[in-house]
Design a protein that fits this description.
Structural class: alpha+beta
CATH architecture of the largest domain: Alpha-Beta Complex
Order of helices and strands: EEEHEEHEEHEEEEHHEEHH
CATH class of the largest domain: Alpha Beta
Largest sheet: 6 strands, mixed
Helix content: 10-25%
Strand content: 15-25%
Mean pLDDT: 90
Number of helices: 7
Number of domains: 2
CATH superfamily of the largest domain: Oxidoreductase, molybdopterin-binding domain
Shape: globular
């Protein structure tokens, strides 16, 4: 096995590396809710000097340029991303935080005003930026432009897009990503703090297994490792971070299912349907995927082999696995190369 590249030492556990400079998947919210007037960022809450800043105000402040490694919770990483903007700590210091302030809430200009929160200790430790520029140009709209938070050393859901408000809080509060999808508030990629641990009552779990029916269920971080689930009906379910390691899932129906970060390592999925499912960050290493239909599925960040273990850890694919070139092209270079070889496309 070749020696690890320098980039591999910067790869958190179970992340896939995006090596193409121009590639940056669009994940989560896709567009801002444009304000009626000029775009502003309001800084308020437990501060002595609340203020509202326009984009020109932000651009006139001292700018800091920083190389940041992006680690998405959906299992892809992009290294050496060059952002430029204003240090959050500089704005907070000027706003005179009150003694009772313990955390900072970042709120988006979006339809549901999605938000995330960092403690003041995290602000001091990770030194996030209010970013206005990426790679020498204005920050693209689809990636949070004209202004977003960039928090190094955290999964990127802690880097709120389309920043509209910074609020200092007297108590810590979970943001949208932490309280609704169940993302871990710590968001440390090196500890794999992706989701909070979920569970379901044992009697319900046994009934679901016996009936082979998960359709419409909303489950988080549940474990079905090694279970016999051939013909499972999981259509339309939400199965975030659910584990099916070594499970038998022949002819299962996962159509229109939210499977972000699910684990199918060594699972038998032969003949299964994943049509129109969201399988970002799913781990298929060593799985049997012969005859699987992926029509319309979203594959950003999915793994078909373990890059740290090499191609021998790859999923079993055949030409009947319905994967088109547009889907394959959304994978990282290494994963796309493996899939093309396994399908006989190269």
């Amino acid at each position: 096995m070749p020696a690890p590249s320098p980039a591999d030492w910067r790869r958190p556990p179970n992340q896939n590396m995006i090596r193409r400079k121009e590639s940056w998947p669009v994940v989560g919210e896709t567009e801002a809710l444009m304000p009626d007037g000029a775009w502003t960022v309001r800084l308020d809450g437990c501060v002595g000097a609340a203020r509202t800043l326009t984009l020109d105000d932000l651009a006139a402040l001292p700018q800091t340029e920083r190389l940041v490694d992006i680690h998405c919770v959906t299992r892809w990483s992009k290294l050496d991303c060059r952002f430029e903007g204003v240090r959050v700590m500089d704005l907070l210091t000027a706003a005179e935080p009150a003694q009772e302030a313990v955390s900072v809430r970042f709120v988006a200009h979006s339809a549901r005003k999605h938000d995330t929160t960092l403690t003041l200790a995290d602000i001091q430790r990770h030194d996030p930026l209010i970013a206005l520029r990426y790679d020498g140009a204005p920050l693209p709209d689809e990636h949070g432009g004209p202004v977003r938070i960039v928090t190094p050393g955290k999964y990127f859901y802690k880097s709120c897009k389309w920043l509209g408000r910074i609020e200092l809080l007297s108590e810590h509060r979970l943001g949208y990503w932490e309280s609704v999808p169940g993302y871990h508030d710590g968001a440390d990629p090196w500890r794999e703090e992706r989701y909070v641990t979920g569970s379901i009552p044992p009697d319900l779990r046994e009934r679901m297994i016996a009936q082979r029916r998960f359709g419409g269920r909303d489950l988080l971080s549940c474990v079905f490792d090694g279970e016999e689930l051939s013909g499972l009906d999981a259509k339309g379910a939400t199965l975030r971070n659910t584990s099916f390691i070594g499970a038998t899932l022949k002819d299962a129906d996962f159509s229109e299912t939210y499977l972000v970060n699910a684990r199918f390592v060594r699972a038998d999925l032969s003949g299964a349907k994943l049509n129109d499912s969201d399988i970002m960050g799913v781990d298929f290493s060593r799985a049997d995927l012969r005859g699987v239909s992926f029509a319309g599925a979203k594959l950003f960040g999915a793994s078909f082999y373990d890059e740290t273990a090499g191609p021998d850890s790859g999923a079993r694919l055949d030409p009947d696995a319905d994967l088109n070139e547009a889907q394959i092209d959304t994978l990282t270079d290494a994963q796309a190369g493996y899939v093309r070889r396994a399908l006989g496309k190269t």
